[in-house]
Each structure stands twice: as structure tokens, then as C-alpha cells.
Amino acid sequence: MGQVPAATRALRVLRFLASQPDPVPLDRIVRACELPRSTAYHLLNAMIAEGFVVHLAEEHRYGLGVAAFEVGSGYSRQEPLQRIARRPLAALVDRVGHSAHLAVLHGRDVLYVLEERAPGRPPLVTDVGVRLPAALTASGRALLSRLPAAQVRALHPSADAFVDRHGRGPRTLSALRVLLVETRQRGWATEDGEVTPGLASVAAAVVDHNGHPMAGVAVTYESPEDPDDPGSRSDSSAVDQAALAEEVRRTAALLTRRLGGTA
């Protein structure tokens, strides 16, 4: 534990409460945070007084308070992820000569929060604020591959959860699982023509200190219109995908370390 054990314990409790779908009883907090019952009780009372926790007396449960919401809102207003990522993403574009972007999971979609365009490269659909199906995008696959299988299943409960843009990409949970296993084994995700014909992407996940995926870093480059037709290949097909992916992984690892995670 750190040099300020009370603060460390309080933050541990807040992080646990934030991970729960509903308020929880004291015993759950004691077990999950590995705290003596009396210590947990006093910490919770202090956080209740400051507005970070609420006590639902009738249910004998504790949940997050308004002050915790204010902290989360402040995080959103300050856009720390975008601020941390802006320069590394620009440096990535300078190194590889292709456009790059940063995306976060939003339900079963990815939401693009930052884009750096390379000069002379074609325009992309990944403008800031755009949402696309995570299962079709390299960024989304990089993020989904780091989630528990149960969470992936919950996000894709039926065939209706899958979107078909250009006749490519997974249409079932089992097909998506195969892609995610390949992604985990490889260490980076790919997508070719499933979002925009003629464009391909490679991506890697940025994770926090718990190994939870925070964002996906991706680079998009020109590819053949039809990967199965050698006659459709152009000079742009000579892109070294593995080398490009290694640069993306370097950037994702840098952002992971800056967020306190382990690359």
C-alpha cells in the first residue's frame, strides 16, 4: 500500500463501487477491497460526509454519490485522454505517413475522439464524433479482444447486433470470437475493406492499470479493393502491415504507460 494508506483504501473502495451495476452491501466491499470491517465502515462514513458515497439505509447498501459523478464529469470536460494522445498520435503519423485515430468503446460501437490526418492521404469516415460498429473496425476489435468473453457476449446477444456495411466482417458471435482470439494472439487488430472499400487499418489497445481497454490506436492505409483479386492490387498494397502494426503498438504502449497501465 502507498504512503497514504487511508487515501489508498478510499480510492480502492470508490473504484470498486464504480465497477458495480448496483449499490452493494458492506460485506461485499469488505471482501472485494480486503479491508477490516471497522475500517471499511469508517471510510464509507467519511466518503458519505463528502458526498462521494450514499448509504441506502433501507437496503443496507452503499453506492456512488453525486461528488463521484462530478469527478467523472470533470474528467470528461478536461478530455485528458485526448490531451495525452494528441502528440504521440501526431508523431505516429509523421513516422508512418498514414492517417491515425483514437477511438473508445461506446456500447457495441467505437466512438472516434481524436484524428490526425497525413498530408495527401484520402479522407476517412473516422471524423471525431463518428460512431462505427466495433466488430467491423480494427480499433473496436483491439478493444473487444481485451474484454471478458461474457462482456463481449452481452454486447452481441444476437445476429441483430452485427452490422453489414460492405458484405464483409463477422455476422455471428462465434465468427467474432475467432477474430478476437486471432487478435489477442497476434497482439494487434486488422480490418480490410469492412468499413470503407479500398482502405485497411491496424490497431492496438491502450489499457489502464487493471488491464481494462481504455482506447484503440489505429492507422488507416490504402489497400486493394478486392484482397482476393491480385489484379486489383496497386502500389499501395506494398504496405508492410507488420511494421505498421509495430509502430501502432509502440504508440499504444506509450499511452498505456502514461495512463498508469502496464504495456
UniProtKB/TrEMBL annotation:
Annotated PROSITE patterns: HTH_ICLR (PS51077), ICLR_ED (PS51078)
Keyword Flavoprotein: no
Disordered: region residues: 223-242
Pfam families given in the database record: HTH_IclR (PF09339), IclR_C (PF01614)
Keywords: DNA-binding, Transcription, Transcription regulation
Superkingdom per UniProt: Bacteria
InterPro entries with a match to the protein in the record: GAF-like_dom_sf, HTH_MetabolicPath_Reg, Tscrpt_reg_IclR_C, Tscrpt_reg_IclR_N, WH-like_DNA-bd_sf, WH_DNA-bd_sf
Cell cycle recorded as keyword: no
Domain IclR-ED: from-to ranges: 67-261
Residue stretches making up the HTH iclR-type domain: 4-66
Name the record gives this protein: IclR family transcriptional regulator
Source species: Nocardioides abyssi
Species lineage: Bacteria, Bacillati, Actinomycetota, Actinomycetes, Propionibacteriales
